[in-house]
Every structure is written in C-alpha cells, then in structure tokens.
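Notes continue from the previous slide.

Worked example: a multi-chain complex. Inputs as given:
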Amino acid sequence: MHIVLHPLLIKASVGYRNECADIKHIVEHVTHLLDRTKLFVSEHPVGLESRVEAAIKLLNIQKSEDVLLLGIWGMGGTGKTTIAKAIYNQIGRKFEGMSFLLDVREFWETHASLVSLQQQVLCDVYKTTTFKIHDIESGKIILKQRLAQKRVLFVLDDVNELHQLNALCGSREWFGSGSRIIITTRDMRLLRSCNQVYAIKEMNESESLELFSWHAFKLPSPPIDFATHSTDVIAYSGRLPLALEVLGSYLSDCEKTEWQRVLEKLKCIPHDEVQKKLRVSFDGLKDVTEQQIFLDIACFFIGMDQNDVIQILNGCGFFADSGMKILLERSLVTVDNGNKLRVHDLLRDMGRQIIYEESPLDPENRSRLWRSDEVIDMLYNDSNLKVITN
Amino acid sequence: MLQPKVYDVFLSFRGEDSRAKFMSHLYYSLQNEGIHAFRDDNEIQRGDQISISLLRAIGQSRISIVVLSTNYANSRWCMLELEKIMEIGRTKGLVVVPVFYEVDPSEVRLQKGPFGKAFEKLISKISVNESTKSNWKRDLFDIGGIAGFVLIGSRLLLFSLRLLFVMLKNS
C-alpha cells in the first residue's frame, strides 16, 4: 500500500495556520470589493484599447529594473488623461504603490501651492496621513526619501510648468527601482527628461464617426438620414474626441433644422479654435439657469460631491436637479465613480473665459471670482460686493 | 439621496474571544491599505442596549466583516449587531464578509457544536422574545451560508486525520 499525501493536507495536519497570510487574504478581498484603485475612464472607450496598448508597450514593464519616465503628449481634448487613467487601472496592481495626481495645472492655478499634492503622493503610496510637509523644499526631501523605497506607478496629469515637475518628481533617483512615471502635458518642452514620449494618435475617420454616434444616437453608427450631417459635424470638429463628445451629446435630441444651424455656426469657426466650437453647446443650453449652473461648477465646484453641489445650488434658488441632469446629458459635466463632479479643462477654461469677458480689466465687475489672489485683492480694495454672485 | 458612506468596513467581533492580536492586526492591515475601518473596541460602553452611534456606523459602512468565533453568539451585544448588519445587508446592500474563526460554517448555519451551545446559553440566560430568537436564528443561518473565510487550524487537523483514516481503510 502506498499513500501520497497532498502537501496542503500535511500543512493542515500539523495544525499549522498562518494568521498573517489569512489577514492578507481578507484585506486583499476587501480591497477588491471596494475597488478603489480603479479610476473612471470613459463611457464609450472608442479607439482607447489600441492607444493604451501602444503606451504600455513603451513603459516596458517586464524588462527594465530602471526607473522610466513616459510622457503622453497631445493637444487639449485628445484624450491624454483618459489614456493615462486606463493605463493606471490596467497595470497599477503590479506596483507596490500608486498615485494619480489629476489636473496638476488646475490645482496650481487655484491653490498656488504644491505642498498638498506632495502630501497626496505620500498618502496614496503609504496609505497614511502621518507625513506632515511644511513647504515645497522639505517636501522634496521627504518624497525622495520615501518614494525611493518603493516600486511605484506615479501619474502626473496635465502638467504645464517645469517647477511642478521639480516639486513632484525631481529626478529618477527619487523612485525605487522598477518605478514608472507617466506625465501628461500639452507642452512637449516639459518632456525632455522622459525616456519615451507617446504622442497621441489622432482618431481616424471610422473611430470619430463611432464616438460621435454613441453620443448623438446611442448607436455605433448614425441612422441613414443623419449620415451626411454627421460626417459634416465631424469634419468641422476636427476629429477631436472632446468636441465629438460634446457636440454629439448636444445634437442628440435635436431636429434636423437645429443640426443645420449648428453646422452653419461651426463652419465659421477656424479649425484651431476648439473653445469656440465647444461654446456652441454652451450657447445651446435653452435655460439661463443651466448656463449659470455650468459656470458655477466650472469656477467653484469641480471635484466636489454631486449631491452636495445640488444642495448648494438649490439653496441659491436654482432648480439644480434638472439642470445638472441636462449638463450631464450634454457631456459638459461628468461624474466620476466617487460621485465627484468633473469638467474637462477645455470646457472649464471656456466657462472661465465667459466670466472673464464680462469685464476683462476689472475683476471686481465679474460675476464670479475663483482665484484666491483676485478675491483677496478685491476684499481689500473694495467692500462693494453687489455683482459677485458667489 | 444615498446615505454617505463614512466607513469602508465595519468590524464586528467578540472582543474577549477572537484573539485581540488577530483583530488589531486585521484592523491595522486594513488601515495600512488606506481602508477606513470602524471597530467597536470600547468594551466599557457595552450595556444591554446597542448604542445609536454604533447602529449608525453600520449604516454608514460599505462592507462589514463579521468575525464569528466560538463565543460570538454568546453575546447579546454581538447578536444585536449581527441582526442590524444582516438587515442592512438585505435592504441596503451592505456587503457582508464572514470570517469563520476556528468555527465551521455549518455550526453557525445550524447552531450546532460549541458555537451552537454558546448561542443556546445566551438564549436561556437572557429573556428574549420568540420573534427576536427566530430572527437571530435566521441571521445565523444566513451568514453561515455566505462565502467567506474559514480560518481553522486544529479542527482541520481532526478532519485530515479522519480523511487519512478513511484512505487507509479503503486501500
């Protein structure tokens, strides 16, 4: 007689139980259930897969033990952030720590400080808030000390100035071996220190038609009687994903006459003036309060919980529930999986431009102020606050 | 409007039972992963009535880990907690993750063995009306059927010896 014992059985029969491993399994399971590392990418990820694959290939994750910086470069609205998010979701689990800094430029412009971003990186990677950073310079030293101990995936989204890079990823030596850093930007000059640069591939004709159709008709291709109108709109919007999304969503419940009107408008806008093309959708908001709600969000409420914002706006006398619904349908505003409001930076800038044009020279005469320096200036100089709505 | 989720995890356990080391290790491992856990470790406050803040914490959690140890069902407090957890699990989608700590899931399900005995003791010790009793029995039956973690050392030893015995007999 011969009995072969399964190794697991032997392990069990000596009464061995590894509590550490048990706890690790429970924590992994809970992490999986919470699924918090996943970022919301896109409702209609047309053409995303091939671009993400190409970028991941450049990251060369398997091979290199070196630290590698990848730049993702393209103009606004081409989908840099979307691609970076998808990469982050796909490969993040292979690293010991991960951090995604969304909208660095926006943060810098409104807060004029990078210390809390430094803090956030440490918080993301080490999962604690025990690190206290007092100023940029000491933050650099702490980041270098801490990050060098881990193999991390770190994304800096929408960087527009060199000092932002200096404060957040000074050099390769800051990061543990095998780390990968991804920087998205419109400015090629900021990517000099990168090993690889992925220049976003423009959408081809069929991709842009598909993306537009999902938003305009909830279908992968347009119905026959809208086919020529659709290809015209796409031609005028320059195959830019953001413009396709916004214009498609705007036209989705419109009659043919409205399509005609929009086409006439688009024809007159030069190809490179994307903001003006996006403005067509803003101008198309039928209700003035919808426009006001959009402007409020663009100036003050990005990153806040949708429900909180609706409450605040209702408190200001808007009927924000229906207004918000329209803005979401029109893709002017999106909500991520934490129920936080997001506005694409081109749309946000468009909104702020509208406010700016109310009174280009005198901030005091604008309906909204969002930059802390302008607000402080005005509070110091003038106590007459009649025009400011917020 | 949805109730905001303040905690990622609500930990329910029998303080004196599931070894303090295991619970604090689990708690800090969760914290280290950035998972915000609520653990009711304030033994002093434990009276007969489950506190309102505790009930609220259950409602404000996304997941509840229930560590079912031998004497879990011997505590009125734990059973009230479990009742609430299972109720919110049924009605509001709280995700319940049982951890069977040196206890076989079937013991929980059918209230047998040492786990069942501990439950019987509680029932005979305190005055519980029939509906609460049947609620608790149903909750134990339900949670015993949820896929979770079975952490058994010594019991598995018995099982494997028995298996070995059967294999020897059959060969």
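Summary box: The mean pLDDT of chain B is 80. Strands of chain B lie at 7-13, 37-39, 61-68, 95-101, 149-151.
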